[in-house]
Design a protein that fits this description.
The complex is a heterodimer of chains A (112) and B (111). Chain A is mostly beta strands. Chain A is 0% helix and 51% strand. The chains are: A mainly beta (112), B mainly beta (111).
Chain lengths: 112, 111
Amino acid sequence: GAGVSQSPSNKVTEKGKDVELRCDPISGHTALYWYRQSLGQGLEFLIYFQGNSAPDKSGLPSDRFSAERTGGSVSTLTIQRTQQEDSAVYLCASSLIHGILFFGSGTQLSVL
Amino acid sequence: RKEVEQDPGPFNVPEGATVAFNCTYSNSASQSFFWYRQDCRKEPKLLMSVYSSGNEDGRFTAQLNRASQYISLLIRDSKLSDSATYLCVVNPGGGADGLTFGKGTHLIIQP
């Protein structure tokens, strides 16, 4: 596909369950970002992958959050033991030029 | 002081008017700057990069003021379709996590 693809588009889960969110970046883009956005709020940085370098995890809010990027392409964001405050839109973006990001349409996560 | 600050608005502007808003940043070492646009319930999209010399793209003009640490976005002859939230993005440079998004300025163009 031409753009960044995220799945699922919507995810409803129960408190305490684990969830996995997937991001398929634009082919050839070396950088991949995860952000989250709560309703009416700004984007909160979560994690950043650049090529084969160690990811920058400084934005992950707790150790319940983890992410990996396999083969420099697809990335999975995992949230363990979900809490209601994890409810948000999780946005993935890929980039070839630093600062110029292409976002996916996001995963709306609702934790009941 | 927050890293990137924007007036949340909303700015209510009649169609055809000129509107401008600023974004201030706290890190004087910041290297690059961008404006993104986000429509309601949509993902952000790059509007334009902000160069030291300023740049213009059609009805949109972006400026950088390093001395006062702010960037600005000017929209001329505003259209209804310009209604959106405009996000300021600052990259301190060299750091992997340097992309900091402002919370955005909400613009409403009224017919």
